[in-house]
Design goal:
CATH architecture: 3-Layer(aba) Sandwich
Number of domains: 1
Strand order of the largest sheet: 5-4-3-6-7-9-8
Shape: globular
Number of helices: 5
CATH class: Alpha Beta
Oligomer: single chain
CATH topology: Rossmann fold
Helix content: 10-25%
Strand content: 25-35%
Length: 222
C-alpha cells in the first residue's frame, strides 16, 4: 500500500490539501529506466504554476478536462474545484491512487481515473481542455505524446502545457504548433517552493487554442 502524507497547497484566497508519497525514495526502481523513476510521487513547480493559473481564471463549469501524466493530479483537482468534469490519466497505478485520494480530499463531484500509457493510448474521447504539466521532456516519448494530444483535443478546445524552461519542450511545442491546428499564447508564472537550494522558479505556460477548421486533429499526422 502506498504510504502518503498530506501537504497544504496555497492558492490565492484558499488552501487545499494535496496527498503525495511520504517516502518517494522507496519507490525508485532501475534508474536506467525512466519508467521506474517516481516523478509522479510529488508536486513539481510546473504543476504548482498551472494550478495557480487555473485557479485565478474563469469558471470551468460544464467543461471536460483531461490531465495527462497526472501524477498527484494538482492541476486537475483545481479544474474540478472550478467546476469541470476531470479525467486523471497516468500509466502508473500508484499515481492514479494519489489522484483518487486528492479528488476525495477536495470533494470533487465529477472525476475519473484512466490507466493509459501514451505508447498504447486507446482513449477515443475528446476534451475541452487538456493539461500537460512538465511531461514533454523525454525525447523517446514525444512522438506518442504528440499523437495523444491531437487525439484527445476537442475541436475548439485548448491545451495548457507548463514546464521549467526546458529546451526540448520548447522544440516539442513548436512542432505541435507547426501542424497549423493551434494558436499559441505564452506566459511566465513565478513559483516559490520550500527548497533552500532553489526556492524560486519562472515557469513557462503555453496555451494552445484550437483554430483549425478541420474536423480531425490526427489528420495532420498522417
Amino acid at each position: 500500500m502506498l504510504k502518503t502524507k498530506v501537504l497544504q497547497f496555497n492558492l490565492p484566497g484558499s488552501t487545499i490539501p494535496v496527498a503525495v508519497a511520504a517516502e518517494p525514495e522507496r519507490l525508485i526502481g532501475d534508474l536506467s529506466d525512466p519508467d521506474q523513476v517516481p516523478c509522479w510521487a510529488d508536486v513539481w513547480p510546473a504543476a504548482r504554476a498551472l494550478a495557480k493559473y487555473i485557479w485565478s481564471g474563469p469558471s470551468l463549469k460544464g467543461l471536460s478536462v483531461l490531465e495527462l501524466g497526472a501524477g498527484v493530479g494538482l492541476p486537475g483537482v483545481v479544474c474540478g474545484l472550478k467546476g469541470a468534469a476531470v479525467a486523471f490519466s497516468d500509466f502508473q497505478p500508484l499515481a492514479l491512487e494519489l489522484c483518487r485520494q486528492n479528488a476525495v480530499l477536495n470533494r470533487l463531484p465529477q472525476y475519473r481515473l484512466l490507466l493509459q500509457d501514451w505508447r498504447s493510448f486507446n482513449l477515443r474521447e475528446r476534451f475541452d481542455l487538456v493539461l500537460a504539466s512538465d511531461i514533454a521532456y523525454e525525447p523517446r516519448l514525444l512522438p506518442y505524446l504528440k499523437r495523444v494530444l491531437l487525439q484527445t483535443m476537442q475541436k475548439g478546445g485548448s491545451i495548457y502545457l507548463t514546464h521549467d524552461h526546458r529546451p526540448v519542450t520548447f522544440a516539442f511545442i513548436e512542432e505541435v504548433v507547426a501542424t497549423g491546428l493551434f494558436a499559441e499564447e505564452r506566459h511566465r508564472i513565478p513559483v516559490t517552493v520550500e527548497d533552500p537550494l532553489r526556492p524560486h522558479y519562472q515557469i513557462d505556460l503555453h496555451i494552445l487554442k484550437w483554430v483549425s477548421n478541420g474536423d480531425n486533429p490526427c489528420s495532420s499526422m498522417e
